[in-house]
Amino acid sequence: MKEVFRASSLAQVSLYQTLLENAGVRCFVRNETTQQSIVGGLAVAFFPLPDFWPTLCLLDDGDYPQAMELLREIKDAAPSTESDWTCAACEEKVPGNFTACWKCQTERHAKSL
Fold first, then answer.
1. Are 106 and 113 in contact (CB under 8 A)?
2. Confidence of residue 109 (pLDDT cuts 50, 70, 90)
3. 39 vs 45: CA distance, rounded Å
4. pTM higher than 0.90 for the full model?
């Protein structure tokens, strides 16, 4: 088991987990629940130290080079400069970096029926 990414944000770690899994790299998140707890409807952090942050780990150490290359590509990618667009099917305004409508899942360049 090798660690490939650690962050205070579980959302960011989970995003990277999804991207690796979609590329066929088997992984899991360690310390998924040690960062926070819900108290009175509010999330409260208990362990702000990096040792307790959510950590993305590989199941197969042999996947380490591939995983690190994928994560490097993600981190080095330039932010999208695409303009927002209007869905042809439902006329919803959609952020430029989306390839499909968030509301109806119609692809960006699909023709309206």
1. no
2. confident
3. 10
4. no
